[in-house]
Amino acid sequence: MGTSMQRRQPQATSGLITLQDDPTEGDEVEMYSGPSLPEDILCHIHSFMPMRDAARAACVSHAFLRSWRCHSNLNFSKETLGLNENACGKDAPGRVFYSKVDHILKKHSGIGLKKLKILIDSDYSAKDSHYLNNWLRTAVAPGIEELTLILVPFRAKYNFPCSLLSDGSGDSIQYLHLACCSFHPTVTLGGLRSLTRLHLCLVRITGDELVCFLTHSPALERLELRSCDKIVCLKVPRLLQRLNYLEVSGCAKLKVIENEAPNVSSFAIGGGNTVQLSLGETLQMKSLSMSRCGSIFYARAELPSSMPNLEALTVHSHTERAYAPMLRSKFPHLKRLSIALTGVSSPAYDYLSLASFFDAAPSLETIDLNVLQLYMKNVSVFADHADLRQMQEQEHHKLKSVRITGFSSAKSLVELTRHIHESITSLECLTLETPQSSLRCSDRCNKSGKCSPLVEDLLMEGHRAVLAIRRFIEPKVPSTVKLRVLEPCGCHAV
C-alpha cells in the first residue's frame, strides 16, 4: 500500500467539512493512494457516499480526491456541511455556509455533476444573489439531471436566472425543484426537453409564464404547484401527453384549472378557495385527492359519473353544508377511501350518511375516516340513545380494515360504526382512536415529563368516547373482527 507522509493533517472541526485548501497543493498532507481498483469503479463507489463522507474520503485518498472534483451528487445545507454554532465559532453559520459552498464548487471540475441541491435556511439577502448565480452557472451544464434550490426565508427576493437554461444548457435536466424565489421563463427560453418532474413551491410565477414553460417541456410526467400565489388561471396544454400526476395546493389567487393533458391519472387539489375545475378526459383517473369545503358532498354526487375508474379517493373538508346523498351511482373500482371532516368550523354532521360511500364502492379494501373535532357539536349518544338507526346490510367481499380517528360519542358516529361492523361481513379489523389518543402524549410532554394540559371539552369527550365504545359497540362486534381501541392517556384522569 503506497502512501506519502506529509506535514499537515486535513482540517476537521466538530464534523465540519472544510476542504479550504487543496490537499495536492502547497503544504503536504498524509494521503492514501487508494485501493487497486479501476478509477471508474472508484468513482462509482464514491458517488453513493453521503456528501460529508465523500468529502472526508477525498481528504485522505488521491483516488477519491480526483473523484471528488467530479462528484456527481452535491447536497449543500447546514446539516450536510456539519455547520453549527460551535463549528463556526464567531462567524455566523450563514456566512460560513456561503464560503464553504463557494469554495467546493470552485474546486469542482464541472464534469460529471448530475444532482445539485442547495438549501439556504437563514441569512439570505439580495447581495448574496451573485453567489447563487455563480453556483448555478457552474452546475447548469449538459449532463445535469436534478436541480433543487430551496430558500427557506419566505421573503427571499431571488430571481432565478432562467437564461442559464437556454441554448441547450438545461436539456438534460429531468427534475427541477424551486422554492421561495421568482421564476420568469420567457418564449426565448423555451423549456427543458428532458424534464419529467417540475416542483414549484412559494414561487413567484404567473399563469402565462408557466404555460409558456410547459409548452416547451413535452416530456413532463409530474407537475406539483404549492402556494404559488401569482397564478390565477392554470392551463395545462394538451401536448403534455406523458403527464400523469398533477398536484395544485395552497395557491391563494387561483380561480380556474383547465387541464387538456389527456393522460392525467392522479390529481390532487388543496386549498380553501373554490376553484373552477375543467379536467378534460377523466375516464383514466385512478387517484384523486381533494381538500376544500364541500368536497365530501361533491365527491359522492359528481365523481361516480365523471371518474368511474377511481381506485383511490381522499377527500378533506372543514365545512359541509349538505350530507352525503344516497344515490344509485357507483365507484366500481374504488379500493382505498379516506375521508377527513375536521376543524372547529364544521356544523353538526350526520356521520351515518357516509355509509352512502360504502354502498357505492363494492370493491373497497380499506377505509380511513378522520372526524377529529376540538368542540363537538353533534348530539351525544348519552343524551339520546333511543332508537339508534340501522341501515340495510351491504355486500362487501373485500373490505378488511376500517380506521376512525377522533372517535367521539356523537350519536350518528356510533350509528355509523355499528353499521360497519354489523353489516360488512368481510371486515377483519376495526380501529377506533379517541380524540385524546390522536394527540399523542409523547409528542406533548413538557420538561417535567408530564403531558401538557388539554382543552377541557376535548378531555371530557375522550372519556365519553371510550364509554360509548364499551356500552354501544364492543358488545356487538363479531368475534371475527379485531377491535382496537386507542384510549386516552392515563395522564388525563377525569
TrEMBL record:
Region (Disordered): 1-30
InterPro entries: At1g61320/At1g61330-like, F-box-like_dom_sf, F-box_dom, LRR_At1g61320_AtMIF1, LRR_dom_sf
Bias (Polar residues) ranges: 1-17
Superkingdom of this protein's organism: Eukaryota
Limits of the F-box domain: 36-69
Residue stretches making up the At1g61320/AtMIF1 LRR domain: 104-489
Protein name (database record): F-box domain-containing protein
Gene source species: Urochloa decumbens
Source lineage: Eukaryota, Viridiplantae, Streptophyta, Embryophyta, Tracheophyta
